[in-house]
DNA sequence: TCAATATATAGATATATTTCAATATATCTT
DNA sequence: AAGATATATTGAAATATATCTATATATTGA
C-alpha cells in the first residue's frame, strides 16, 4: 500500500466525491457515475483511473460497462495506517 | 476544519515528514526542522506555511526562533472526520 | 454487418505546485 | 550601532495536474 499515492488520490474534491458516491451506491457504471457531475466523460475517466491506480477502487467489466466499487479493505487499511504513522 | 485543505496539505512527502518529525520531537524551531532535510530554508518555510494555514501546526514565537508543533487536536479531528465522511 | 452506446486514450491548454536564489525583516550579541 | 542568526517573502523556472475536444476501442443490438 502506497500511503502517499493514496493520500494524493484523496486530496481532490472530485475524487473524494467519487469515493463517497461509490460508498453510498455500492457498484455503479462509469456512465452512472458521470451523471453525478457536470464534468466531461474523459475527466471522470481520468479521476477514476487515479483512484484505480492506487487501489482504492475496483473495476469489474460487465459487457460494455465497467462496474466501479470501493476497495473497502484498502480504504480501512489506509485510514488505520495514516493514524499509525502520524499519531502513534 | 477544511477537510480537503488538510488532505492536500498531507498529500506531500515533505510535509508528511515534517509532521512526523514534529510528532516525534514535540516543539522545535524552523532551523532544527531544516536540519532534517536537504531542501532549502525557503522551501521548508513554504511547506511549514501550508501546514500552518490549514491549522495542522502551531507556531509560537520565541525570540528570533519560531517553535513549531503539531495541532494534535485538529489532527485527531481530521482523522476522525475523514473516516466518518468516507466509511460511515 | 452497421449503428449506437460505453469507456479509454491522445493531445492541447490553463492552472497549480514545488523549488531555489535573492532579498527583506526581526531579533540577538557584542 | 553593527554584525550575526532565524525566519519570511518575492519572483522565476520547472514540473505536475485538471480539464477539454477529438478520436480510438470495445461491446451490444438491430
UniProtKB/TrEMBL annotation, chains A, B:
* UniProt keywords, alphabetically: DNA-binding, Transcription, Transcription regulation
Please give the Gene3D superfamilies that the UniProt record associates with this protein: Winged helix-like DNA-binding domain superfamily/Winged helix DNA-binding domain (1.10.10.10)
Gene Ontology MF, one: DNA-binding transcription factor activity
A Pfam family that this protein carries is HTH_5
Q: Which domain of life is it from?
A: Bacteria
Query: Residue limits of the HTH arsR-type domain?
Result: 1-88
PANTHER family, A to Z: TRANSCRIPTIONAL REGULATOR, ARSR FAMILY (PTHR33154), TRANSCRIPTIONAL REPRESSOR SDPR (PTHR33154:SF33)
- This chain belongs to the protein called ArsR family transcriptional regulator
Natural source organism:
Algoriphagus iocasae
Amino acid at each position: 500500500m502506497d500511503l502517499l499515492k493514496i493520500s494524493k488520490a484523496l486530496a481532490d474534491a472530485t475524487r473524494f466525491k467519487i469515493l463517497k458516491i461509490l460508498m453510498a451506491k455500492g457498484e455503479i457504471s462509469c456512465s452512472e457515475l458521470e451523471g453525478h457531475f457536470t464534468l466531461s466523460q474523459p475527466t471522470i475517466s481520468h479521476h477514476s483511473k487515479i483512484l484505480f491506480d492506487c487501489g482504492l477502487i475496483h473495476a469489474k467489466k460487465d459487457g460494455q460497462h465497467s462496474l466501479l466499487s470501493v476497495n473497502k479493505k484498502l480504504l480501512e487499511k489506509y485510514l488505520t495506517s495514516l493514524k499509525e504513522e502520524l499519531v502513534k
